[in-house]
Amino acid sequence: MRHPIFLLPALVALAACGDRGGDAEVARALDDINVIDETNLNDVMMTVADPGEAVSYFQRASDANPERVDLRRGLAQSLVRAGRIPEAVAAYTQLVALPAATEEDRVAYAGALIRNNSWDRAESVLDAIPPTVETFDRYRFEAMVADSNEEWSRADSFYETALGLTTTPAGVLNNWGYSNLTRGNYAEAERFFADALRHEPNMFTAKNNLVLARGAQRNYDLPVIPMTQVERAQLLYTMALTAIKQNDLNIGRSLLQDAIDTHPQHFEEAVRAMRALDQGA
C-alpha cells in the first residue's frame, strides 16, 4: 500500500532543486518508497496473510525477480505455512544454492526436510552448518534428528539447550515428552507434558500426549487440566484405545461409552471402536 503522506514532501523538496538531475532524483525517491512499501507488504504476507495468498504473492514476486533471495525465502517459508511441504523442500533446495543464502536458511531447510520425513538429508544439512550457529531452531531440529536415531543422550542435551533459547518452551517440552514416551519413560514423559501445559494450557497435542503417558502406566483417570467438552470426549477416546491396547478391555469399553456420552455430537470414531470391540468379544 502506498503512503502519499511520505511521497509529497519528497517530491516537493526535489522539485525545488531545479536542476536537470531532478528527474533522476525523483525516480530514486520513488524507488526508495517502493522498497519501503514492499518490505512492509512482505512482512504482512509472512506473518498475517492467508498462507495460500502468501504463496501466490511470493511465487509471482520471485518469478519476476529470481535473483532476490528475500523473495525466495518468503516463498519457501510460505509453503511451509501452507502445509505444502514437498514444494517447500524444493523451494529451500533452490534457495540454499544461492550465494546470498544464510546459515539460518539452511537451518530452515533442515526443518522442512524433517517435516517431509527426510531424516537423513536433514541430518546432512545440519552437520554442514558451523557449530557457531547457535539458534533455537538449530538445536530443536538437532534434538529431533537425534531422537530419530535413538541417540537419547544427544537428544536430551539438544532439548535442554533449545529450552534455554526460547521464551515459549511448550513446544520443546511437548517434543521432549514425546521423546521420553517413545523410550518408555512414561512417568518422565508425563512430567514434560504437564510442564508444557503449564506454559500453554490450550495445547491439545500435549493434553493428548499426557493421557497417553498416564494410560501407558495404567492410570486411566483423566488429568485435572482445562478442557472443553469435545476435548474431554476425545481424551476419553484416547485413554480407551490405550486401555484396549493393553488388553484392559472392560476399562476400554467403559471409557469408550463415556466418550460417546460426553461428546456433544455423534462421535463416529468412538462408535466404530465400540462396535469393533463388541464384535471381537
Short description:
This is Tetratricopeptide repeat-containing protein. The chain has helices spanning 4-15, 22-47, 51-64, 69-81, 85-96, 103-115, 119-127, 136-148, 152-163, 170-183, 186-199, 204-216, 229-245, 249-262, 268-280.
Characterization of the model:
It is elongated, with a radius of gyration of 26 Å. It contains 15 helices and no strands. The longest helix is centred in the N-terminal third of the chain and has 26 residues, at 22-47. The chain has helices at residues 4-15, 22-47, 51-64, 69-81, 85-96, 103-115, 119-127, 136-148, 152-163, 170-183, 186-199, 204-216, 229-245, 249-262, 268-280. It has 281 residues and is an all-alpha fold. This is Tetratricopeptide repeat-containing protein. TPR repeats lie at residues 170-203. It comes from Wenxinia saemankumensis.
By helix and strand content, what is the structural category? mainly alpha
Q: Low-confidence segments, ≥5 residues, pLDDT <50? A: 1-18, 29-36
Tally of alpha and pi helices: 15
Q: Mind telling me the CATH class of the domain at 140-215?
A: Mainly Alpha
* Biggest sheet layout: none
Give me the CATH fold name of the domain at 140-215: Serine Threonine Protein Phosphatase 5, Tetratricopeptide repeat
Overall 3D shape: elongated
Residue-averaged pLDDT:
87
Helix share, percent = over 70%
N-to-C series of helices and strands? HHHHHHHHHHHHHHH
- Taking all Cα atoms into account, the compactness measure Rg is 26 Å
Under the CATH scheme, which architecture of the domain at 140-215 would be assigned?
A: Alpha Horseshoe
Compute the number of strand runs.
Answer: 0
Task: Specify the CATH homologous superfamily of the domain at 140-215.
Answer: Tetratricopeptide repeat domain
Question: Termini separation (Å)?
Answer: 66 Å
Oligomer: single chain
Beta-strand content bin = under 5%
